[in-house]
């Protein structure tokens, strides 16, 4: 499964782990993460992430 890194703060979104604090279940592909997703550490938008 892929990982995506926040270009602002370095937070890693792992498709395997999801982001439960933002309501994204483990196993959720990046393409299926809501467009209004925000980094749980710095609040950056989904557009500020890139494939690691």
Can you give keywords for this protein?
52 residues; 0% helix; 3-stranded antiparallel β-sheet; electron transfer activity; mainly beta; globular; single chain
Helix content: under 10%
The major sheet is characterized as: 3 strands, antiparallel
Characterize the quaternary organization of these chains.
single chain
Strand percentage, roughly? 15-25%
Q: pLDDT average, as an integer?
A: 98
- What gross morphology would you assign? globular
Question: Would you write up a description of this structure?
Answer:
It is a single chain. The chain is mainly beta and 52 residues long. Helices cover 0% and strands 19% of the residues. It is built from no helices and 3 strands. It has a 3-stranded antiparallel sheet, with no helix packed on it. It starts with a strand and ends with a strand. Its cofactor is Fe(3+). It comes from Sinanaerobacter chloroacetimidivorans. This is Rubredoxin. One of its GO terms (molecular function) is iron ion binding. Keywords: Electron transport, Iron, Metal-binding, Transport.
In short:
By secondary structure, the protein is mainly β. Helix content is 0%, strand content 19%.
Indicate the topology:
Blueprint: E1 3-6, E2 12-14, E3 49-51
Antiparallel strand pairs: 1-2, 1-3
InterPro entries: Rubredoxin (IPR024922), Rubredoxin-like_dom (IPR024934), Rubredoxin_dom (IPR024935), Rubredoxin_ET (IPR050526)
Organism: Sinanaerobacter chloroacetimidivorans
Protein name: Rubredoxin
């Amino acid at each position: 499964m892929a990982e995506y890194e926040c270009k602002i703060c370095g937070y890693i979104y792992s498709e395997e782990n999801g982001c439960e604090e933002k309501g994204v279940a483990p196993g959720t592909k990046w393409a299926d993460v809501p467009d209004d997703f925000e980094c749980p550490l710095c609040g950056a938008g989904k557009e500020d992430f890139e494939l690691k």
